[in-house]
Design brief:
Elements: H1 3-7, H2 11-20, E1 23-29, E2 35-41, E3 43-45, E4 48-54, H3 58-65, E5 68-75, E6 83-94, H4 97-112, H5 121-135, E7 138-152
Antiparallel strand pairs: 1-2, 1-5, 3-4, 4-7, 5-6, 6-7
Helix pairs in contact: 4-5
Length: 160
């Protein structure tokens, strides 16, 4: 078996890896034909990811011209720890307010995940109001993979 075949993640492993992550690097093509690379917080969405951003952002302008992106999520410091998923994606720009609110709410929930404190009702209400206000200025972005490349060097057991 090739080393490449040994480190490739299964589709279930890719979904679990993306579910555990928070930040993706998103590359779109800018107005001069060069890659425009930005980090985004994201939530899993089917086999891909979703996020929200300001509707006037450069990445949205790029995606209106060409609704395609390459997305990279990676972790690890030492070679034997490296994990990652790179996806070539078709991108849907979501302009429906309720869908944007759902994405924003899910993002807020993911960012506060792991906090074992009970959140007071007034904080939950304030957060919901914040998301709804922000949604008026934002769009959702849904990244649907057309090609996925993955690696998990932990599968090599510390050998090269």
């Amino acid at each position: 078996m090739s080393r490449r075949a040994q480190i490739k993640m299964t589709p279930d492993e890719v979904r679990a890896y993306l579910a555990a992550g928070r930040v993706a690097n998103v590359a779109t093509i800018g107005p001069k034909g060069r890659p425009h690379l930005v980090p985004v917080f994201y939530i899993p969405d089917g086999d891909g990811i979703a996020t929200w951003t300001y509707g006037t952002s450069q990445k949205v302008a790029n995606l209106r011209r060409l609704p395609e992106a390459t997305v990279l999520v990676e972790t690890g410091v030492a070679y034997e720890e490296l994990q990652g998923v790179s996806m070539e994606c078709d991108v849907e720009i979501v302009e429906d307010t309720e869908q944007i609110v759902r994405i924003g709410t899910d993002l807020l929930g993911k960012m506060s995940n792991g906090n074992d404190e009970v959140v007071p009702d007034e904080v939950v209400t304030a957060a919901a109001q914040f998301v709804r206000l922000q949604a008026q200025k934002r769009v959702g972005l849904v990244f649907r993979p057309t090609k996925v490349v993955s690696w998990d060097h932990r599968k090599l057991g510390g050998t090269y």
